[in-house]
Design goal:
Blueprint (H helix, E strand, L loop, with lengths): L3 H10 L12 H4 L12 H16 L5 E12 L9 E17 L5 E6 L4 E6 L12 H13 L7 E7 L9 H17 L5 H14 L8 H8 L4 E6 L5 E5 L5 E7 L9 H16 L20 H26 L2 H17 L6 H12 L3 E7 L6 E7 L3 H16 L5 E4 L1 E2 L10
Parallel strand pairs: 3-5
Antiparallel strand pairs: 1-2, 2-5, 2-6, 2-12, 3-4, 6-7, 8-10, 8-11, 9-10
Helix pairs in contact: 4-5, 4-6, 5-6, 5-7, 6-7, 8-9, 9-10, 11-12
The chain binds adenosine-5'-diphosphate and magnesium ion.
Adenosine-5'-diphosphate binds next to β5 and α5.
Length: about 425
């Protein structure tokens, strides 16, 4: 269905900024450095983790846990409103190399991402670990204990190509990679549901982040070359093709680190609950335009509810666009989503809005939006593949001028979740 010729024909017909007759091959011919950061291959991460385990803990890796980050194509802030989301797992991974622990009743962990080492006593790990990032480890060990799986002493190294705290879900990648290591070390296999459930509970109860179900579900269940359509009311899902050599998905970091656990996220959740209650609905899932009349006197709640309603509709439209191979429509939906998140849901910020505008001004860009919880983090842009280098360079150069520092930019492919992945070679 996604054979190159068909997609090329559709793209040729589409009139949204696809006007330039000549692809910008001059860029590469002039040997200018691409602004697109290369994606490290997964086996290089696995080797790096193994090598760090040797140097830090003087032991050989016995178990490996791997899980990907994600970007949400569309369906933002719909998850906790019992709505629909459409994320992809990305070919950026968190990799754990682990071995039986050198210290009894202790899990020792070195995170190469943070350059920090920490220890978790297994006998007494009821409290909140003093190092915040270790609470994810503490939480996963505790949640598996509740499932009857007792994690042994381990020495472990974390390496990751998922930027931490950038809205690409390094937290769920860490949780699912830990889940697979705990299962491998105990030779007890949980179901994907149990794995996802333990990860969500660990993030909520131990890291203190009131997350929805999307991040952990896609990190575990995604299929390569597909987006995951997830119904957050009952966790049913299906796979929607998301692959074409004709288009690329660019991720650009705004350089602003979000604080998802902070007040604004909780405020939006509370506003959505208040809006649903005032309309007599159990959630905003079933909201229709007629319901909004009940919110006429509540301008803010009305806007929040409208975002959720229109965003759910955009998820459905996106599924139709991707299924039809209509990437122009897909790009337009991404840009509409951003406007709604900016104007109605108020979870963007000036820098991210500016970055989206810069992306949308570039030739070959079909659409752009913030992705993740908001208040910073990353922007994604759907770009015609032959323009992606030129567009990325221009966007990064102009954004660097605006923000005063260089920015991270890379392309991503839809990859498999940790439960669907082949064991690394
Ligand atoms: P995101 O999931 O969007 O990256 P979060 O704030 O939800 O952002 O999660 C980031 C947190 O997860 C970090 O601050 C850290 O505590 C933990 N974390 C994620 N990846 C790693 C890693 N590779 N090493 C150590 N801690 C990590
Ligand atoms: Mg997270």
């Amino acid at each position: 269905m996604y054979a190159g010729g068909e997609v090329a024909d559709r793209l040729a017909d589409c009139d949204c900024r696809l006007t330039s007759p000549a692809p910008p091959v001059m860029f590469n011919q002039q040997n200018l450095r691409s602004m697109i950061e290369p994606t490290p291959p997964l086996n290089a991460l696995v080797e790096q983790a193994a090598s760090l385990l040797r140097t830090h803990f003087r032991t050989e890796p016995v178990w490996t846990g791997i899980a990907p980050g994600r970007v949400n194509l569309i369906g933002e802030h719909t998850d906790y409103n019992q709505g629909w989301v459409l994320p992809i797992a990305i070919d950026r991974y968190t990799v754990l190399a682990a071995a039986p622990g050198g210290v009894p009743n202790e899990i020792r962990v070195f995170s190469a991402s943070l350059g920090e080492q920490a220890a978790l006593p297994l006998r007494d790990s009821g409290g909140r670990h003093p190092q915040a990032w270790m609470r994810y480890v503490e939480g996963m060990v505790a949640e598996y204990r509740d499932l009857g799986v007792i994690c042994p002493a381990l020495d472990m190294v974390i390496v990751s190509s998922v930027p931490v705290g950038s809205g690409l879900s390094s937290s769920a990648a860490l949780e699912l990679a830990l889940a697979h290591v705990i299962e491998a070390a105990t030779e007890q296999t949980a179901t994907p549901e149990a794995r996802i459930g333990a990860s969500i509970r660990a993030e909520r109860a131990f890291a203190g982040v009131p997350c929805g179900v999307m991040d952990q579900t896609v990190a575990e269940r995604a299929r390569a070359g597909h987006a995951l359509l997830l119904d957050c009311q009952d966790n049913t899902f299906s796979h929607v093709p998301f692959f074409s050599p004709q288009v690329s998905l660019l991720v650009i970091h705004s350089g602003i680190t979000h604080e998802l656990a902070s007040g604004a996220y909780a405020t939006r959740r509370a506003e959505c609950e208040a809006a649903a209650e005032k309309m007599g609905l159990s959630s905003l899932r079933s909201l229709a335009t007629a319901h909004l009349k009940a919110l006429e006197a509540e301008a803010t709640l009305s806007k929040r509810a409208r975002h959720v309603m229109t965003e759910n509709a955009r998820v459905r439209a996106m599924v139709a666009a991707l299924t039809a191979g209509d990437y122009c429509a897909a790009g337009a939906l991404m840009s509409e989503s951003h406007e709604s998140l900016r104007d109605d849901f108020a979870v963007s910020c000036d820098a991210v809005d500016h970055l989206v505008r810069l992306a949308e001004e570039e030739e070959g860009v079909l659409g752009a939006r913030m992705t993740g919880g908001g208040f910073g983090g990353c922007v994604i842009a759907l770009v015609r593949s032959e323009w992606v280098d030129t567009a990325a360079t221009a966007i990064c150069r102009r954004y660097t001028e605006y923000i005063g520092r260089t920015t991270l930019c890379f392309t991503v492919n839809a990859t498999a979740g940790s439960g669907e992945m082949d064991a690394p070679v």
